[in-house]
Amino acid sequence: MVRFATILNCKILDIPFTYLGLPIGDNPRRKVMWKHVIHKLQKRLARWKNKLLSMAGRVCLINSVLSSLPLFYFSFYKMPRTVQKEVESIQRKFLWGEEQDQRKVAWVSWDKICRKKSQGGLGIKDLSLFNDSLLAKWRWNMYHDTSNLWVRVLESKYGGWVKLIEGDNKKDYSMWWRDLRRVCGGDCSEQWFDKCMNWKVKNGKRTRFWEDKWIGQQTLAEDYPRLYINSGQQQTTIHNMGHWLEGGWEWSFRWRRRWLGRDEIQWEEMMGRLQEVVLDKNSEDHWIWMVGNNMEYTVKATYDQLSSWKNGGEEGGVYKELWSLNLPPRVSIMIWRLLREGLPTTMNLKSRNIELGESERLCSLCSRAEESTSHMFFECGITDCVWKTCYNWIDLATVLPANPSNHFQQMPISISSKKISDRWKVLWSAVVYNVWMMRNNIRFNGRRLQIQKCIQDIKNDTWRWLSLNKQFTYSYTQWQADPGGCIMDGGSHG
Ligand SMILES: [Zn+2]
């Protein structure tokens, strides 16, 4: 049995060493290591290349193909920047590949696309942050899984989690260890890992009294530098800084030199704080992950936190409202692009240095002005006529701002409840969507301008989309007769 276990142990050890590659010795910065990942990604996405997919479908595919890649690469190695760029470029080309006018332009920056939907993105995974959240789990595991073989290997080779966070980079560190230090250890300038965790000291055996951040926002060494310098126990764990008596725990300190008057003040303050500390000799120290809900490290919660730090301050409100509406994905994405100034209007083409003929530059609807987003959707005489018809349904006569997100968010005064304003926003979405469709049909399919048809399409779409909400119970006939009444009714009809 013992022999069997030994063999089994060897096997466990062998797997990462020979099959997955040897992270503690290998050089993850070599691009050849990543060829497999890139190839696989290309192959998977290529399968879908010629299928007719909406942009919403392509977003889904990009994320699902990514999660089908061999994740152990991402959880062992820090992806080199050049590889990351290459993978992103494959994803980007796939996302924007099938534009109607075949110009493969990235209409919204990749950085913005990678934000969470509630933060104004499309929720495509940010590879670098995803990679970091997977890698940082090593630090967590190094501290907690002390019986794990891997952790013992790392302990003997590098000194384990302690050496991950302290000291300087040593020449004999492997690339892998350096990367880990850079992502979540001592060489990480943001120190984000430490911001996410708290120390929970129990028996004090795995926490250093002076140098770990176990009480308050800083280490005691930082809080009381005079005492720390004088201490004869600078690296000592809490467990070795005193002993258990019958009445409980008693501290014992050793000092290098006699005290000066100023030390006294720091000492009293520190001892005051230590009185609050309750040790427990029967349980182990551990870390608490403050991000997410289950106190333990999770890749998902960590990724979300990193992402919101990176994109902090981003105006999220208008996007939250957009994604909360019950709209077909192709419509939500079209509106997302409108809000992101990422629709291929001729002004936007021009700003991306795409040459257009003189006649092509003009608004397809009125041929009177250059086609910018605000012109086409809000200022154009034709569009204005469409809006006025819809405003009429709810007896509204007002001038709304020409900036897409303000226009989307500003509610006519007569609209008072969230229910009604959501319905109004569905109608709003149907207007901009159908105006865009009408424009494309004129520009690319040689259709004539048909305002009445556009309004009828808006009316039909709005009813269909509102009906996705079960509480909206108006029949098609009722809706056709009085759309404004159906929208403004705050009563029983949902
Ligand atoms: Zn126009």
Automatic annotation (TrEMBL):
Pfam families registered for this protein in UniProt: zf-RVT
Reverse transcriptase zinc-binding domain ranges (all copies): 297-387
Keyword check for Transit peptide: no
UniProt keywords, alphabetically: Membrane, Transmembrane, Transmembrane helix
Regions that span the bilayer: 52-76
UniProt name for this protein: Ribonuclease H protein At1g65750 family
Organism: Cajanus cajan
